Amino acid sequence: MPLISLVNITSRIGKKTCLSDINFTVSHNQQWAIIGANGSGKSALGRLLCGQLKAQEGSATLPEKTAFVSFESVTEALDQERYNDDSNVCGGADPGTAARDFILNGQPELAPQLAAMAEEFDFSGLLERGIKFLSTGEMRKAVICKALLKQPQLIVFDEPFDGLDQSSCAILKDLLSKITRSGTQILLLLNRFSEIVPEITDLAYLQSGRIVLCGPRQKMLASTALNRVHRFHSQGLVQLPSPLTEQPMAASDNQEEPLISMNRVWVRYGDKPILADLSWQVLPGEHWSISGPNGSGKTTLLNLISGENTQAYANDITLFGRKKGSGESIWEIKQRLGYISTAFQRSYRVPGTVSAVLLSGFFDSIGVYHDVSMKQQQLADQWLQLIHMEELARTPFQRLSFGEQRLVLLARAMIKQPQLLILDEPCQGLDEINREMVLKLIDILGSTGRTQILYVTHHPEDRIPCIKNSLQLVPAPGGGSTAAITRCPQ
User: Fold this and answer.
1) How far is CA 174 from CA 129, 223, 298, 462, in A?
2) What residues form DSSP beta bridges with 396?
3) What pLDDT score was predicted for residue 248?
4) What's residue 488's pLDDT?
5) With DSSP H G I counted as helix, E B as strand and the rest as coil, what are the percentages for the chain, rounded to 5?
6) What tens digit of pLDDT does each residue of 255-296 get?
7) CA-CA distance, 197 to 64, in Å (whole number)?
C-alpha cells in the first residue's frame, strides 16, 4: 500500500480553487520534489499532504504522522519574539525564547531525543540561545529539529533553500540527507530545478493547481520542454515585445463598430448546408471561444473570416468595418490577421531556420522572400527569448519536435500583434507541458495586448482566462449548424 494516494482531488481556499484534479501516489521508497512557479499551488499541495488543507472532491490516503516545514512560519515566530521583547523594561537585552524551549514546545519529556538530534545536526551549542539571535541557517535547523521530534513518516519542506547563503545551503542539504537515511521520507516544494538534492528519486511539475507531468527524476530532468515551460512560468509578469508598427487603420475603421459582423450566413456544398442562418458579431475588445463537434463547421466559419472560403462574398459579412466583396484584397485582410492551425503547420514545409519561420510572420508568407530589416530581426529574436528557444534560432524548423514547431508558429502568428488572432485547435498534438505554455502565451496576449482572439477547441479544460464569450455551433432545424451565443457583458 502506498504512503500517499490522491485520486481526483480538488481543493479550495474560500471560493478559489487552489488544486484541481490531482492524482498523485508516493511509495515507501520514494523521495519526491514538486516543482512549480510562484502561485502554482505547491504550498496548498504540501498542506493537503499534511492534513492542513481539506479536499472538497476526490479521495486521499495520507500518512498518520506528517510534518509541514514552511519557513514562512519562522518569520511569524520571530515577529512574535520582537513583539514580546522586554529589553527596554528590564534594562538589558531580553534573551527571549531559547531554542530548546522553541523546539520542545511544552514537551520536556522529549529533551533526551532533542539532545541526541542536536548532537547529530551540530546544534547542541545553540540550544540555550534565544531564537531571535540565531542566523537564518541556524533557525532552520531549529525548525527541522522541531518537526523531527514528532517522528513523522513524511516531512514536507516548502522552499527550504530560499534566503540561504551557500554555506547554509550545504548544511541544509546534509541535514536532508541524514533525514532520509534515518527512514523519514521527504517531499520538497521548489521553484528551482537546481535545488533538487541527490536523494530525490521522483519529480512532479505543478502548474495552476494541476500536476501536468510527473515521473522518475532522470526522465523529468531530461525533458527540454519541461525546463522551457518552467523558465517561462517562473519569469513572473511576462512583457510581450513591442510590435514593430501599429496596425494600419482603414478609413472605415471605427472603434465602436463590430470587428466582425455576420448576418444570416449560409454555407452550402451542393445540397448540404454546413452553416445555416448564422448571425454573430464580435465587438471591440471581445475574445471568443468557438466550439462544436467534428464536422459542425468551425473551420468553415474561420475561413469565411480569413478569406479562404469564397462563399464569404456571397454572404452579408463585414470585417474590420468593410463588407466582404467591397474591393479589399486577401492580402489586406491577412495583414491584420494572425493564424495558426494544425493544417497550417503541416503545410509549412519550406526549408528554413526557426528564425526565418518567425520572420515570415511579418510577410504573411510560408518562407521569407523579402529583405529583412534589423528591427524585424531584433523583434524575432525577442520572441524566441520569450519562449526560451533562442538557442534554436539557427536550427532547421523541420528538425524540431511537433510541440516545438507549434510554439514557433504561435510566436509567428503573434509577432506583429495582429488586430485579430485566429487559433484553430492551437493545442492539438501538444503534450501537457507545451500545452500549458501555449495557453499562458495566448492569455498574456489577450490580457495585455491590442489583439482580439478567436479560439477553436474541443477541450473545455483548455480554457484561457481572458476569453469570456463563447459561440457554440449547434444543429440547425433544417440541417447544418447555427450559433448558440453566450456573451459576457463588458
Assistant:
1) 23, 27, 58, 42
2) 353
3) 46
4) 85
5) 35, 25, 40
6) 678 999 999 999 998 888 999 999 999 999 999 999 888 788
7) 25
Closest CA to 238 of 383, 358, 377, 455: 383
Residues 6+ apart with CB under 8 A from 358: 380, 383, 384, 408, 411, 412, 415
Average pLDDT, the chain: 85
What's the rounded Cα separation, in Å, for the pair 467 and 464?
A: 6
Smallest CA-to-CA distance from 13 within 49, 50, 35, 41 is with: 41
Q: Are 154 and 3 in contact (CB under 8 A)?
A: yes
Q: What is the DSSP letter of 395?
A: S
Q: Is the dihedral of CA 155, 156, 158, 160 positive or negative?
A: positive
Contact assessment for residue 25 and residue 5, using Cβ atoms and an 8 Å cutoff: yes
What does the block give as the cell for 386? 520569450
Amino acid identity at 419: Q
Of these ranges, 2-11, 91-100, 318-327, the one predicted with the greatest mean pLDDT is: 2-11
Q: Which residue has the higher pLDDT, 224 or 364?
A: 364
Confidence of residue 31 (pLDDT cuts 50, 70, 90): very high
Integer Cα distance of 359 and 380 in angstroms: 6
276 close to 481: Cβ distance less than 8 angstroms? yes
246 pLDDT above the threshold of 90? no
Backbone angles phi, psi at 228, to 5 degrees: -65, -45
Retrieve residue 63's grid coordinates. 500518512
Nearest alpha-carbon partner for 45 in 157, 145, 148:
157
174: which residues sit within 8 A by CB, 6+ positions away?
none
Q: Which of 164-178, 432-446, 453-467 has the highest mean pLDDT?
A: 453-467
> Does residue 235 surpass a pLDDT of 70?
no
Residue 92 Cα to chain centre, angstroms: 52
Q: Count other Cβ atoms within 10 Å, centred on residue 316.
A: 13
DSSP, res 197: -
| Per-residue confidence (pLDDT) for residue 431, from 0 to 100 | 60
Nearest CA-CA partner of 330 in 281, 365, 354: 365
Contacts of 427 (CB under 8 A, 6+ apart): 435, 438, 439, 457, 459, 462
Alpha carbon separation from 128 to 97, 101, 147, 281, 393 (Å, rounded): 9, 8, 19, 73, 59
How does 48-76 read in b/e, with b if 16+ C-beta sit within 10 Å?
Answer: bbbeebebeebebebbeebbbbbbeebee
pLDDT confidence of residue 432:
64
Q: What is the largest CA-CA distance in the chain?
A: 98
Model's pTM, two decimal places? 0.59
What is the layout of strands, in order, in the sheet containing 4-13? 16-26, 4-13, 57-61
